[in-house]
Amino acid sequence: RIAYVNGRYLPIDAPAVQIEDRGFQFSDGVYEVWLVRDGNFLDHAGHLARLKRSLGELRIDLPMSDAALDIALRETLRRNRLGDALVYLQVTRGVSKRDHAFPVKPVRPSIIITIRPAPRAPVAARAETGIGVITTDDIRWKRCDIKSISLLPNVLAKQAAREAGAFEAWLINAGGEVTEGSSSNAWIVTGEGVLVTRPAGDDILNGITRQRIIRIAAAQGLRLEERAFTVEEALSAREAFISSATSMVMPVVSIDGRPVANGAPGSLAGALRESYEAGLEG
Ligand code: PMP
Q1: CA-CA to 230 of 20 to 30 Å: which in 91, 101, 102, 273?
Q2: pLDDT number for residue 278
Q3: What pLDDT score does 282 carry?
Q4: Mean pLDDT of the chain
Q5: With a 6 A CB cut-off, is 207 part of the ligand 1 pocket?
Q6: What family does this chain come from, according to its entry (predicted)?
Q7: What is the mean pLDDT of residues 161-190?
Q8: Residues with Cβ within 8 Å of residue 171, at least 6 apart in sequence
Q9: Minimum-distance ligand 1 atom for the alpha carbon of 208
Q10: How far is CA 258 from CA 99, 131, 219, 261, in A?
């Protein structure tokens, strides 16, 4: 595996990150993840726009043009010889003597790109059976709209899910509402067939997959409400699912061990997943 590190292409395990990189010491950075199918970056523009927004909120200046970044992304993918892949991009504020405040004299941000294989079969198989989620308190900060590399609450939530034999953790805020998953957005389908997902705000990451599903729903004339929902509502819903670049649309069949509807993947989630995949080819 080959990684891109500040303009160089290196083996993934090469010693390449500096001790005083602010990403390493402060989690002072942001990231993006693209799904690549047959060599095509899905929703490339959307991910790039979100990256710039995240960087802007943290006042980190991307040290390269869009064109140069695009070349780096594609060249890293090419060197890994993968058609179906996940591309990870991380930008940190750069290397500077450890001090919480920003470097007085600005330093060049660090940019890292890594690639990993994203075979279709395991994800498709998971979508056939559906996944279980657990619920856990949303203990994150108040700017979850920024795709920050500071992911400790998400790490702990995902680990709790794994230890419970579940695939994802749904994060619950002080009001008892589901904000989102540890690395995905959360959805339900009501008994009336209405798609429901939490509105984009400071308390969730506005998923690029989420935005694409909203566009698909609009194009297909599906009813959709962007509003909060609780675990109780999800448990009595017709369907539940998660969305992310990695999982696309993934049916949720149980929450904390209790079945959603009849405990089988829902038909609307399946249809959305198909529409989403069909869009990948176009
Ligand atoms: N929420 C969180 C907390 C995430 O980490 C992710 C995945 N990056 C998402 C939502 C889904 O975003 P996307 O659809 O852009 O992958």
Answers
A1: 273
A2: 87
A3: 40
A4: 97
A5: yes
A6: Belongs to the class-IV pyridoxal-phosphate-dependent aminotransferase family.
A7: 98
A8: 135, 136, 137, 138, 140, 153, 157, 178, 179, 180, 181, 182
A9: 15
A10: 47, 12, 33, 9
Q: What predicted TM-score, i.e. pTM, was given to this entire model? A: 0.97
| Three-class SS state of 94 | coil
Q: If you measure from the C-alpha of residue 97 to the centroid of ligand 1, how many angstroms do you get, rounded to a whole number?
A: 32
Q: Which domains does the chain have, with CATH numbers?
A: 2-118 (3.30.470.10), 123-281 (3.20.10.10)
Sign of the dihedral through C-alpha 215, 216, 221, 226: negative
Report which of 135, 154, 125 is spatially closest to residue 33, judged by C-alpha positions. Answer: 154
Q: What is the mean pLDDT of residues 131-142?
A: 98
Q: Is 142 in the active site? A: no
184/170 Cα distance (integer angstroms)? 9
pLDDT, one tens digit per residue, over 81-111 is 999 999 999 999 999 999 999 999 999 999 9
What CA–CA distance (Å, rounded) separates 151 from 143? 12
How far apart (Å, rounded) are the C-alpha atoms in residues 72 and 154?
A: 28
**Which token pair is 230?**
């609780």
The average pLDDT across 249-263 equals 98
Q: Is the beta carbon of 273 within 6 A of some atom in ligand 1?
A: no
In one-letter notation, the amino acid at residue 3 is A
